[in-house]
Design brief:
By secondary structure, the chain is an alpha/beta fold. The protein contains eight helices and seven strands, in the order αααββαβαβαββαβα.
């Protein structure tokens, strides 16, 4: 799910029409329709009811609309948060980013910030959240993106993105046929995880241990692209 998809959805709700929303956003009506369809498929819910050429939010749509407004509000406020945090006019920022983040979101944010402060340059360093926090603490990075919660005694933080943790398997894997997966289903499975520099590694291991087993890890890495390739082979 992308930020623009939520923006399209919110505009449809405001305009009460996909055609009017498309005109307002200067995009085609099929683009809006396809976006709503993709959102419904991804969320596995119906967002709108249609009746006599009118559209109405379902209960699930109402809940999603509320979440979208909060997410977009935080997203729009990030440049101001960065400005207040940094109070810089010129210089270079060293920013730590986890390899699992959607880089397109970050590029958009940096572009907005660069428009406000054109004399500030950036260096991006990809690492796990633990390493990023450690480097910020010791001054090797100016700021970074990590997994909340974190130590508020050491860092100033604000939230700007929420994502669900999902299981990824090969399309021919037996678990791919199930609509829902229980943790118990994973007891005999082999795991490919991000390495111990990532809080996600700890979260997965601890969750498995809470269910009475240690995950059978066959490989750990820092690269999402490598995990994808391993799953495809």
């Amino acid at each position: 799910m992308e930020i623009k998809h939520m923006q399209y959805f919110v505009e449809v709700v405001k305009q009460k029409s996909m055609t009017k929303a498309a005109a307002s956003l200067f995009i085609t009506q099929p683009t809006i329709s396809n976006t709503i369809k993709l959102l419904e498929e991804e969320l596995e819910v119906i967002l709108f009811n249609r009746y006599k050429n009118q559209i109405y939010l379902t209960d699930a749509g109402e809940a999603f609309f509320s979440q979208c407004k909060e997410m977009l509000k935080m997203y729009d406020n990030i440049p101001n948060e960065l400005s207040n945090l940094l109070e810089l006019k010129t210089g270079r920022l060293k920013i730590g980013i986890p390899t699992i983040i959607n880089i397109r979101i970050l590029i958009n944010l940096i572009s907005q910030f660069h428009e406000m402060y054109p004399n500030i340059t950036f260096q991006l360093f990809e690492n796990g959240s633990k390493k990023i926090e450690n480097d910020i603490y010791y001054g090797d990075l100016d700021m970074g993106i990590t997994v909340l919660p974190t130590n508020n005694k050491n860092f100033n933080t604000f939230s700007f993105l929420e994502e669900k943790l999902k299981l990824v398997v090969h399309k021919n894997h037996k678990l791919s046929k199930k609509k829902t997966i229980n943790i118990d289903d994973l007891k005999e499975q082999e795991f490919i995880l991000f390495n111990s520099d990532f809080y996600l590694n700890d979260k997965i291991k601890n969750t498995c241990r809470d269910y009475g087993f240690n995950p059978n890890m066959i490989f750990e890495t820092t690269q999402w692209s490598f995990i994808e390739e391993m799953l495809l082979n």
